[in-house]
User: Which sequence fits this backbone?
């Protein structure tokens, strides 16, 4: 496989990778929006006190997801444009976006491995606070918030060690849900499912960023080296330059042809025609 064939294959792969990265960015933005505005997280956020760990995690997850989605979209657009236009600066910008996303995803993966239950503990602590306040207060706003949580997670109170609900807890649950799972189990199950999806998305993002950085660095080198050789007339990245012989500049041709033509003009018609006769005479 020749050098241009390798570059052409890399360009096709870069276009496909850019499209996949753009889809990955849209998916990440969707997950971030669902995490912030989704019913399960929004109902917990309403009962979370200001300055609580859950509130910080909730906002941090949203802004991190949106920022990464923006960098993914920008990197995909820059890489695709650089591949089509063969622009080295655009390709360098796409590589920088991919590198920033890779570093951020490494930090997210490291944080997930180091603190696997931090989000789960924060959500369960918030539910415990809302449950205790609903039990201690008279029917009002707190009980309505607790009922909203239970309706969203399809759960019912907190089970006692014997597995039975107390009379106060049973009053908060609909009759048809009196034997359903308690909310601690329901919330934990939902968060673990959400966490597995986030881990899969992080792993796919890391693998995609490594591949995109390798392709963008190879194409950047090919673009820059191809332009440098094209100025010498030996090689060009674009196929339209392949098959053309390097031509001499017009100024160089004039410099070679100019003195001969001017010398013949100065001799005049008679001198130009008489030159051979003089040679014959001698």
Assistant:
């Amino acid at each position: 496989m020749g050098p241009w064939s390798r570059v052409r294959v890399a360009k096709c792969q870069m276009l496909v990778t850019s499209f996949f990265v753009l889809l990955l960015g849209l998916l990440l933005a969707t997950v971030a929006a669902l995490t912030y505005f989704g019913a399960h997280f929004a109902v917990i956020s309403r009962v979370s006190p200001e300055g609580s760990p859950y509130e910080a995690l909730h906002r941090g997850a949203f802004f991190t997801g949106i920022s990464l989605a923006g960098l993914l979209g920008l990197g995909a657009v820059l890489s695709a444009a650089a591949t089509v236009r063969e622009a080295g600066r655009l390709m360098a910008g796409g590589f920088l976006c991919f590198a920033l996303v890779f570093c951020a995803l490494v930090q997210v993966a490291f944080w997930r491995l180091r603190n696997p239950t931090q989000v789960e503990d924060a959500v369960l602590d918030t539910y415990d606070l809302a449950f205790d306040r609903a039990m201690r207060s008279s029917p009002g706003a707190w009980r309505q918030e607790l009922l909203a949580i239970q309706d969203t997670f399809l759960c019912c109170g907190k089970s006692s060690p014997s597995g039975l609900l107390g009379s106060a807890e049973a009053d908060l649950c609909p009759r048809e849900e009196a034997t359903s799972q308690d909310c601690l189990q329901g919330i934990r199950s939902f968060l673990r499912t959400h966490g597995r999806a986030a881990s899969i998305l992080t792993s796919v993002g890391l693998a995609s960023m490594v591949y995109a950085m390798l392709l963008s660095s190879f194409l950047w080198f090919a673009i820059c080296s191809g332009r440098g050789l094209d100025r010498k007339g030996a090689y060009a990245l674009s196929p339209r330059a392949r098959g053309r012989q390097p031509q001499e500049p017009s100024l160089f041709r004039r410099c070679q042809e100019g003195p001969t033509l001017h010398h013949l003009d100065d001799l005049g018609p008679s001198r130009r025609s008489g030159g051979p006769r003089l040679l014959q005479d001698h």
Remarks:
- The chain is about 80% helix and 0% strand.
- The longest helix spans residues 183-231.
